[in-house]
């Protein structure tokens, strides 16, 4: 695949996740996809990503990119920018987090194989999100 096709694949993956379209993931991802960003108790392979889209993403109301840059070379794509939305409230990384708006830096890295996403990594500034939502306070 070309670099442009790989970028388009990531754009389509973003759209499917935002829409909660787990059926589209079959076309976009390998069945044995390794999603390094998922909690260890999620199912392995593509099923773990499907489960997250169904059960985890709804907590992030209107979560989307406010800034995004895609850099692609060969079969690797890195997407970096700022994601913002509203946390609906509830547990997050071991904290009971109140609902509210957030904005945080995020980088997603992808490895493409035969035109599908084979691996995905996430680097998120969760500390900033937890501070914005009052789950963590600075003590001086």
Descriptive report:
The chain has 140 residues and is α+β, with helices and mostly antiparallel strands. It has one domain: Nuclear Transport Factor 2, Chain: A. 27% of the residues lie in helices and 44% in strands. The protein has 4 helices and 7 strands, in the order ααβαββββββα. The strands form 2 sheets. Strands 1-7-6-3-2 form a 5-stranded mixed sheet. Strand 6 and strand 7 (116-124) form a beta hairpin. The radius of gyration is 15 Å and the shape is globular. The model has no long low-confidence stretch (mean pLDDT 93).
Please name the defining characteristics of this protein.
alpha+beta, 4 helices, 140 residues, globular, two-stranded antiparallel sheet, five-stranded mixed β-sheet, 7 strands
Chart the SSEs and their pairings:
Layout: H1 3-19, H2 25-28, E1 29-35, H3 46-55, E2 60-73, E3 76-87, E4 90-92, E5 95-97, E6 100-113, E7 116-124, H4 126-132
Task: Offer a quick outline of the entry.
This protein is an alpha+beta fold and 140 residues long. It has helices at 3-19, 25-28, 46-55, 126-132, and strands at residues 29-35, 60-73, 76-87, 90-92, 95-97, 100-113, 116-124.
């Amino acid at each position: 695949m070309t670099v442009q096709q790989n970028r388009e694949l990531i754009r389509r993956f973003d759209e499917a996740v935002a829409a909660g379209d787990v059926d589209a993931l079959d076309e976009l991802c390998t069945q044995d996809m390794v999603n390094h960003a998922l909690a260890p108790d999620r199912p392995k392979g593509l099923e773990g990503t499907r489960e997250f889209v169904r059960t985890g993403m709804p907590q992030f109301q209107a979560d989307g990119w406010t800034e995004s840059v895609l850099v692609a070379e060969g079969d690797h794509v890195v997407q970096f920018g700022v994601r913002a939305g509203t946390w609906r409230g509830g547990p997050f990384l071991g904290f009971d987090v109140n609902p509210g708006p957030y904005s945080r830096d995020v980088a997603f890295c992808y490895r493409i194989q035969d035109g599908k996403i084979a691996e995905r990594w996430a680097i998120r500034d969760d500390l900033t999100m937890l501070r914005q939502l009052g789950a963590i306070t600075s003590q001086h």
